[in-house]
Amino acid sequence: MTVAKPVLRRDLVALLAVAAAIGLMVAYRHVYVEPRAWGALCLDLAQAPLACQPRAVLLWLQHWQLWGAVAMGLGIWAFVGAPFPVRAAAVAMGVIAVLNFNATWGMVGAALGGWAWVEASARAARPAAPSGRTGRGATP
Question: Is the model's pTM score more than 0.90?
Answer without folding.
Answer: no
